[in-house]
Every structure is written in structure tokens, then in C-alpha cells.
Amino acid sequence: MREAAIVEPRPYHHGDLRRALVEAARRILESEGPSALSLRAVAREAGSVPPRPTTHFKDKGELLDAVAHVGWDMLGEAMTAARTKAPDPASLMTEIGVAYVQFAQQHPALYRVMYDCSRDKDSLPEGMQDQEDGAYCLVRDTFKAVAGPEIAQLDIELATTAAWCAAHGLAEMRQLPPV
To answer: Which residues of 50-61 are buried (b: 16+ CB within 10 A; e: fewer)?
Structure first.
């Protein structure tokens, strides 16, 4: 007769469960798509028991908002890295725009969640326009640096919005299936 394998019980205390749940949700989104995402699946992926996610997120919508926030941070990091690669000031906006489109291509499900979660709100995600190292501020500050101090703040904001819309439009078009 064979002996039963001894299974080590998982500890109840997870550590940083909130972050683990958000990362698990992001992994599920990117590998299996939004239809596979549920609080139960996220708990299983994070190595937690199913009821535990509700101590951090009241529902799937709150979890998706947290995942979207991570996505915005990742986009900002990608755009910051691209900015440092620009060979000259004239290339800064091009490099940032390319990074935006590449991010959308590399993380299509996350990108979709980022915009789906912000679509129901009146403006960009909370803090995005004030977060100095965030994606929006990076674009705005790049325009400020290239344009110089004589350009009005309203013009900078309009140029930032236009550049953001252009990059977003390109990213959306790149995600469409070929005709």
C-alpha cells in the first residue's frame, strides 16, 4: 500500500493580500482574458481562500479599479523609460507616444480594463492629473519643457489632451482585428 503524501497547509496569513490579489487579477486578465476573472479565481491564483478578497474589495468592480490603477502606474513607468531614450528634445513626444501604443499592444486586457474603469467617471482616474510621476503629467511636463515658459498653461493642457487622444486613437486602431 502507498503512503499518502503529506500536504503542507497554506498559512492563513498571506502577507500583503491586497497587492497579491491585484497582481493575481492582472495575471488572469492577461493570460485568460476578462471573462475568466472572478473573485474566486483571483483568490485561488493568489493562494488565498475564496472569502478573503472581500476583506479588501467589496466586489469585482473595486478589484478591477485597483487593477486599473496598477495599469496606469505601469503605463507611466513605460512612458518614463521611453522618455529617457529620446535622442533629442524634438523626439521626446514621439518616444512617449510610441511607448503608449506599445504598452496597449503588450497588455491589451489590462489596457482595456484601465479605460473601462475610467469610462464611468467624469475625468481621468483619481490623482492622475496630480501624480507628478504619472503618465498624464509626464506628457504635460514634456510639452512644458519643449515649449518653454512663454506658452500659456491652457495651451499646454490642450496640447497634452490632443497628444493623449492621438496616442489613444493609434492604440485603439492597433487593437482592431485586420479587415
So the answer is: eebbeebbeeee
Cell matching residue 146? 519643449
Question: Quick one: cell of 88?
Answer: 533629442
User: 14-72, pLDDT tens digit by residue?
Assistant: 567 888 889 999 999 888 888 888 888 888 888 776 655 566 788 888 888 889 989 99
Q: 68 near 111, Cβ under 8 Å? A: no
On the 0-12 / 13-18 / 19+ scale of CB atoms within 10 A, 2 is exposed
Q: How many CA atoms lie within 13 A of 170 on its CB side?
A: 14
Residue with cell 513607468: 77
Element holding 17 (H helix, E strand): helix 17-32
Is the pLDDT confidence value at 114 over 50? Answer: yes
Q: What stretches of 51-133 show up as alpha helix (H) in DSSP? A: 60-85, 92-106, 108-119
Helix 60-85 with 39-46: angle, nearest 10 deg: 60
Do the Cβ atoms of 50 and 44 come closer than 8 Å?
A: yes
Does the pLDDT at position 177 exceed 70?
no
Is the per-residue pLDDT at 129 higher than 90? no
